[in-house]
UniProtKB/TrEMBL annotation:
Annotated coiled-coil segments of the chain: none
NCBIfam families tied to this protein: F_box_assoc_1 (TIGR01640)
Name of the featured protein: F-box associated beta-propeller type 1 domain-containing protein
InterPro entries, per the entry: F-box-assoc_dom_typ1, F-box-assoc_interact_dom, SCF_F-box_component
Domain F-box associated beta-propeller type: from-to ranges: 11-271
Length: 293
């Protein structure tokens, strides 16, 4: 079995309510020798990366699970400038068994970083696609935590077409949604579509927000979090149509495009981890107690 020549990053889950961290076991993915029919030789494993992880609850088995996509890169170590070859795999972690297992990889893989953890009623969602650059069709890849199966859903053509529009998945008021905005983002408008039992409905349109670069997701009151051209985090109140600049400096020590918004639901479920180290955790309230997000 081909082994990696580098250390793999650790993954962890965190429950802010019980203030526990749990370092997850090492990856269970096997690194099989890769035979290239074009080069007629076995290739060397050059890199392993983990992407598009999602967390959710399996009510069927009363279990919390983490799913992640594993990208293996192989090269011909004999070549000076080797051409990389890629292999995709998927693994699933169970809190109940405290172990990973490899599961069959779908025909489609996530295409972009998602806006937070798109999990609704036991199912995780990612954006994917099929077709070439100008002829590609947007699709939604889903994974059911209970039966551990992947499925494909269409993104309706009427929500926006590439390359004129970006379409990002997110969760809005407990339902899966699409937020659609033009790729030319000088003055950006947003359309929100939400699906229920396969039917897409347009919820609202937010017109011409100057200087906004990227949507981050919705709070529990339906307010939209945004990032502007100065890397500031903004809050758009859909009921008053007002924008407020938030003093959230999450990007100071991080790569700014990796900023994401995650909905938090309080839970006292023990994860049998270790207590968080206070000096590494910064808790910054965003509103007063009478007007929480």
């Amino acid at each position: 079995m081909q082994r990696s020549r580098f250390e793999l990053p650790e993954a962890a889950i965190w429950n802010p309510s019980t203030r526990e961290f749990k370092i997850l076991p090492p990856s269970s993915i096997q690194h099989p020798p890769y035979f290239s029919p074009f080069e007629e030789t076995y290739l060397t494993l050059d890199n392993v990366s983990f992407d598009n992880a999602a967390f959710g609850f399996d009510s069927k088995n009363d279990d919390y699970k983490v799913i992640r996509f594993v990208d293996l890169t192989f090269v011909n170590s004999e070549e000076e400038n080797p051409h990389p070859h890629f292999m995709d795999q998927v693994e699933l972690y169970s809190l109940r068994s405290n172990s990973w297992k490899e599961i069959p990889s779908p025909d489609y893989t996530p295409t972009c970083t998602t806006l937070g953890n798109n999990y609704v009623d036991g199912i995780c969602y990612w954006k994917t696609k099929t077709g070439a650059y100008l002829d590609f069709r947007g699709l939604i890849l889903s994974f059911d935590m209970g039966n551990e199966k992947f499925s494909i859903l269409p993104i309706p053509e009427f929500v926006g077409s590439f390359p004129e529009y970006y379409v990002d998945l997110l969760v809005f008021n407990g339902s899966l949604g699409d937020i659609v905005y033009p790729s030319q983002r000088i003055d950006t408008s947003f359309d929100l579509w939400v699906t229920s039992e396969g039917v897409w409905t347009k919820q609202f349109n937010i017109k011409s927000i100057s200087g906004v670069v990227y949507p981050l997701g919705f709070g529990k009151n339906g307010d939209l979090f945004l990032r502007d051209t100065n890397d500031e985090v903004l809050l758009f109140d859909a009921s008053t149509l007002e924008i407020k600049k938030l003093e959230i400096n999450t990007y100071l020590d991080h790569f700014r495009f990796a900023i994401s918004l995650h909905a938090y639901l309080e839970s006292l479920v023990r994860i049998n981890g270790i207590q968080e180290v206070e000096k590494y955790v910064i808790r910054q309230p965003t509103r007063n107690a009478s007007n929480e997000y």
